[in-house]
């Protein structure tokens, strides 16, 4: 009898652990969201004709309304200004009405994300920002939803992005070395969590109030399998920064690994020092052709000074998977 009680107690503790663990798919927040969604989806006249549904809604209607009032919602924030726009929505600078703290709030259209579900990775983005403890990754403060949108409230980065920095300054090598090191640390943190970013570029590198870099925008991230690879048959990323492996995967086995992120770091470093990406062409086909033929198309300008160490580092990043394996 004592053994049976012990097993029951063990099961209850495991269930409690699942509910309390924020990384569990059965955590308290997920359960409350599910109850909210269920009550919303059942609350239609034709469905309420079913006496069991009607009884369920009558029983929980008051509690669900109270839940909706208690949860974080869009009315808790006042919009200050638009600071970014993307394929699935926009990013607003907002101020929390109660605390008066300033945040960046990403608002994503559910309709657009469902329509482009093959390239929309909301859960991955949320997971990385919520559970990474890296100082090189933008942190998530909270996430919530309404009928039409998903919202992610993130720390605000007042320094802007690296694109703005390169427009305003000629970047010396010591600056480039500093920012490249911080990008490498950010990617190492993401890879250690089991993800590949797939869209590393200056637009996704933000500066805090002290001038340090944090990587942002994880909506293209995919979780690696047990071999350290991802499978995707659509070209994800920004053309000038896409690696040969990503291009080769289209129409093939659709498989590549974290080398695609390191390739993008090489493009980024070259761009910081030269002022343009190394494989730029007038057409998309021309750019992709140069990337695939990178052994011959990677050229360092003769009319600018660049150390041999910088050239070697760029060349080491701009190589293929087999070179990393060797």
TrEMBL record:
<feature type="coiled-coil region">
    <location>
        <begin position="53"/>
        <end position="80"/>
    </location>
</feature>
<keyword id="KW-0418">Kinase</keyword>
<keyword id="KW-0067">ATP-binding</keyword>
<dbReference type="InterPro" id="IPR000719">
    <property type="entry name" value="Prot_kinase_dom"/>
</dbReference>
<protein>
    <submittedName>
        <fullName>Rho-associated protein kinase 2</fullName>
    </submittedName>
</protein>
<dbReference type="InterPro" id="IPR011009">
    <property type="entry name" value="Kinase-like_dom_sf"/>
</dbReference>
<comment type="similarity">
    <text>Belongs to the protein kinase superfamily.</text>
</comment>
<keyword id="KW-0547">Nucleotide-binding</keyword>
<feature type="binding site">
    <location>
        <position position="106"/>
    </location>
    <ligand>
        <name>ATP</name>
    </ligand>
</feature>
<dbReference type="GO" id="GO:0016301">
    <property type="term" value="F:kinase activity"/>
</dbReference>
<keyword id="KW-0723">Serine/threonine-protein kinase</keyword>
<dbReference type="Pfam" id="PF00069">
    <property type="entry name" value="Pkinase"/>
</dbReference>
<keyword id="KW-0808">Transferase</keyword>
<dbReference type="InterPro" id="IPR008271">
    <property type="entry name" value="Ser/Thr_kinase_AS"/>
</dbReference>
<feature type="domain" description="Protein kinase">
    <location>
        <begin position="77"/>
        <end position="326"/>
    </location>
</feature>
<keyword id="KW-0175">Coiled coil</keyword>
<dbReference type="InterPro" id="IPR017441">
    <property type="entry name" value="Protein_kinase_ATP_BS"/>
</dbReference>
<dbReference type="InterPro" id="IPR050839">
    <property type="entry name" value="Rho-assoc_Ser/Thr_Kinase"/>
</dbReference>
């Amino acid at each position: 009898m004592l053994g049976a009680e012990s097993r029951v107690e063990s099961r209850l503790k495991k269930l409690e652990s699942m509910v309390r663990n924020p990384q569990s798919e059965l955590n308290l927040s997920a359960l409350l969201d599910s109850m909210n969604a269920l009550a919303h989806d059942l609350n239609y006249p034709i469905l309420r004709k079913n006496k069991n549904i009607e009884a369920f809604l009558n029983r929980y209607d008051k509690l669900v309304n109270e839940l909706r009032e208690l949860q974080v919602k869009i009315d808790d924030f006042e919009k200050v200004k638009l600071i970014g726009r993307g394929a699935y929505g926009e990013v607003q600078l907002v101020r929390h009405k109660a605390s008066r703290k300033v945040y960046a709030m990403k608002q994503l259209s559910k309709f657009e994300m469902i329509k482009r579900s093959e390239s929309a990775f909301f859960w991955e983005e949320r997971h990385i920002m919520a559970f990474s403890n890296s100082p090189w990754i933008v942190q998530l403060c909270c996430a919530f939803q309404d009928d039409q949108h998903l919202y992610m409230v993130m720390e605000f980065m007042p320094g802007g992005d690296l694109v703005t920095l390169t427009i305003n300054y000629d970047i010396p090598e010591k600056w480039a070395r500093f920012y490249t090191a911080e990008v490498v640390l950010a990617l190492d943190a993401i890879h250690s969590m089991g993800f590949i970013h797939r869209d590393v570029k200056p637009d996704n590198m933000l500066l805090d109030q002290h001038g340090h870099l944090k990587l942002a925008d994880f909506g293209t991230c995919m979780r690696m399998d047990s071999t350290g690879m991802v499978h995707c048959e659509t070209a994800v990323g920004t053309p000038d920064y896409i690696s040969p492996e990503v291009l080769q995967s289209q129409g093939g086995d659709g498989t590549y690994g974290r080398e695609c992120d390191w390739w993008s770091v090489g493009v980024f470093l070259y761009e910081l020092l030269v002022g343009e990406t190394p494989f730029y062409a007038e057409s998309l086909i021309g750019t992709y052709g140069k990337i695939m033929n990178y052994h011959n198309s990677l050229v360092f300008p003769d009319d600018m000074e660049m150390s041999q160490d910088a050239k070697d580092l760029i060349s080491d990043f701009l190589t293929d998977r087999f070179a990393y394996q060797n």
